[in-house]
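Quick question, first post here. What does this chain look like in 3D?
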Amino acid sequence: MTAAALTGFVTGLSLILAIGAQNAFVLRQGLLRQHVFPLALFCAASDAVLIAAGVAGFGALTAYWPGLPLVMSLAGAAFLVVYGLTRLAAAWRGGHAIENGAGAQSLRRTLAIAAAFTWLNPHVYLDTLGLVGAVSTGFAPGSDRLAFGIGATGASFVFFFGLGYGARLIAPVMRSAFAWRFLDAGIGVTMLAIAAKLVLGVI
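> Answer (accepted):
Ran it through. Tokens below.
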């Protein structure tokens, strides 16, 4: 169970680390110290719902379509290769910037923006329902697969709360072009490694 939980944690963390609109928004709110707790909780809870659906629903679908794990694993690996290469290219180019605006906004508006970033992002469904669900099939149904899902969910909670509350600590570092390049390079290598594991697991 420990190995399954660790794999779930690493998988979830690797997929969520990319600095997209949602993460940049959480970072910005953390820098401004505005609604950090409810925002981080909302983002992490949204991930938990999607991850649970991916792990549970994917297993149910495989009972009707045994070839689905192979299809999803290969599709997921292809996406991860492209995504990983994209992050490596971004690391090579550099030039990241995080919007650092000012001005307070209501909690309702903050969560509405977070909801749009989360639920209107097509990649979140591929990441959670597809990729996390596909990787979860490498573990036996029951305690191991549950541990994998808990690990992946835990990664979301650790990341979003860490990002929100740690924003002020990492802000000076992340203004460095080298730091962004290092982060992107790490994400790219991790994605390629996960893709290789998916392919090797089905051939």
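DSSP finds eight helices and no strands in the chain.
The CA atoms of residues 19 and 184 lie 9 Å apart.
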